[in-house]
Write a sequence for this structure.
């Protein structure tokens, strides 16, 4: 069993990082707390099995929007057994609520930006689809022209071949007549 004091730096305040840390600790059976420290960092004090603490330290290195952990500073101490569970230590409720509203506003704007980009991509996709249909129609027209041209060539070739066979048949008959084979 050991105790770890951890300072996490990066974009970790007002992005739901403490909630993520609490869930990781709960899953690993770790006890302690997580709290914001001014101006931008997070402090974690945790106790648990050596292996669980090592796994915890790896899992809290989150780089998934909007969270971006840049560094994790860890120091180890002797196990004290002073925690019953893992908790989030929050500031006064007005400050916490204000921070949550700021974060919600930022995420709402980001959502609007993504929606606008999605609409742009959808419009471009429709344009490309229309272009594809237009190209497909032109290809079908060319295919029809090619088929008609081939039909015409077949008719011309058929007439030419019939004429040649008729002429050859007459010539063969004339040769047979001269040879007395008829």
């Amino acid at each position: 069993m050991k105790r770890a004091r951890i300072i996490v730096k990066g974009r970790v305040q007002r992005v739901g990082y403490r909630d993520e840390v609490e869930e990781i600790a709960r899953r690993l059976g770790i006890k302690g707390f997580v709290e914001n420290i001014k101006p931008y960092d997070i402090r974690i004090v945790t106790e648990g099995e050596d292996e669980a603490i090592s796994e915890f330290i790896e899992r809290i290195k989150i780089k998934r929007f909007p969270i971006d952990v840049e560094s994790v500073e860890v120091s180890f101490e002797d196990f004290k057994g002073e925690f019953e569970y893992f908790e989030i230590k929050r500031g006064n409720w007005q400050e916490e609520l204000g921070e949550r509203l700021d974060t919600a506003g930022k995420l709402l704007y980001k959502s609007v930006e993504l929606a606008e980009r999605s609409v742009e991509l959808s419009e471009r996709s429709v344009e490309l689809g229309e272009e594809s249909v237009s190209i497909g129609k032109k290809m079908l027209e060319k295919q029809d022209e090619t088929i008609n041209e081939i039909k015409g060539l077949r008719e011309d070739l058929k007439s030419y071949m019939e004429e040649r066979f008729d002429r050859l048949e007459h010539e063969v008959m004339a040769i047979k007549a001269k040879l007395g084979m008829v």
